Amino acid sequence: MNLHMLGHGAAAWVGLRPTPLSLTYELSHRCNLRCTYCDRHQAMPHELGTADIFRVLGEFHALGMRRISLDGGEPLLHRDIADVVDWLVRHDVVAVMNSNGILVPRRMDVVRRLKTVKISLDGPRACHEAMRGAGSFDRAMEGVVAAREAGVDVELTCVVGRHNADHLEELVQIVENLGVTIIFQPAVQSLVDPARDGSGWMLDDATARAAFATVERLKRCSKTIGNGWASLRHFRSFPEDLEPPCAAGWIMATLDPEGVLYHCDQDGRSDRSNNVLAQGVARAFTGLKRESCPQCWCARLVEGNYLWGCRIDKLLPPLRYQTTRLKFPG
Fold first, then answer.
1. Dihedral through CA 91, CA 95, CA 228, CA 308, nearest 10?
2. Lowest mean pLDDT: which of 102-106, 177-181, 251-255, 287-291?
3. What is the torsional sign of CA 7, 13, 18, 20?
4. Of all residues in the chain, what percent carry a pLDDT higher than 70?
5. Are 17 and 62 in contact (CB under 8 A)?
6. Can you give the pTM of this predicted structure?
7. Does residue 317 carry a pLDDT above 60?
8. Domain encompassing residue 220
9. Residues 6 or more apart from 109 whose CB is under 8 A from it?
């Protein structure tokens, strides 16, 4: 973290001046998979055009943006992804990307310029493909290997649900053999539609807590688990409300494919009035709400928020071990 980030972050932390140091940009909701628990499969009707993308990125950079997470859908499908990453690198913006891994070997021209590529891996082949489709496991693994061999930092992400909660140890062994790390976080009902029924993939409360007790146990004996203790301690309460400190709207924001700006990527999407094309980035960012919410289950977001709140007590390993065992119906 450089002096720019530290200085502007400190000013935001004391409430003097919010600054969008970190942006999550969903380039498109178009995807080459149809994962069951995801509701981002098709492009939105009015996604930003090329000229607007670079104008908006320029305005964010002028306000202080120095880190960006490229999200989707699948970002590597976007027609302008190479030019976007080139622009970010030239402007000294640290770029990370969330991907399903399928296009990574074909788009190494883009991937090798990223700081980190985060690839979804939900378990051994049967578990992964239960949610993501036939053939998706091998193609994700090929993406992991291609990025790793090119020297790109690779971090895997596992969504823990009914399809894989009893196969976490097998997954960790696979990841250890790959020589990378993996982040675990619970499956939720929806990314953008709070009315969506997630019962087909979400775990019941007791089983979810038992699954993350397994992750805690594995973390104590394996460097493969990338979760910090802040997220694992937070997940002990899933899905009960547990409101962490929140940097959303202070130093972070999320831009959707049509240019609507939200304080957090976990925020509800029904209000579409805060559009950066209509208002300009500065005004849209100033108008964001700055409040925490009780339902925060993205591991890296949770960890960043506890760090933002200086909650040292949450960053350290807990003294109390989780001992709950996994139990499955039937």
1. 40
2. 287-291
3. positive
4. 95
5. no
6. 0.92
7. yes
8. 3-315
9. 82
Band of pLDDT at residue 79, cut at 50, 70 and 90: very high
* Whole-angstrom distance, CA of residue 102 vs CA of residue 88: 23
Q: Are 198 and 161 in contact (CB under 8 A)?
A: no
Question: At 139, which CATH number?
Answer: 3.20.20.70
Does some domain include residue 21? yes
Structure-token pair, residue 154: 């690779």
Residue 232 · residue 212 · CB < 8 Å? yes
Q: Mean per-residue pLDDT for 281-304?
A: 90
Q: Is the pLDDT of residue 80 over 60?
A: yes
Amino acid at 191: L
The full DSSP string for 45-76 is: TTPPPHHHHHHHHHHHHHHT--EEEEESS-GG
Please tell me the total count of domains within the chain: 1
In the block, tokens 């980190």 appear at: 116
User: ∠ at Cα 203 (199, 205), nearest 5°?
Assistant: 115
Find, among 204, 265, 270, 273, the residue nearest to 238 by Cα: 204
The pLDDT-based confidence of 71 (bands split at 50, 70, 90) is: very high
- Chain centroid offset of residue 205 CA: 22
Does residue 326 lie in a domain region?
no
Closest CA to 20 of 323, 257, 288, 328: 288
Does residue 91 have a pLDDT over 90? Answer: yes
**Can you tell me whether residue 176 is helix, strand or coil?**
helix
320 within some domain = no
Q: Quick one: which H or E segment has residue 286?
A: helix 281-286
Token pair of 77, please? 């499908």
Token pair in block for residue 29: 């909701």
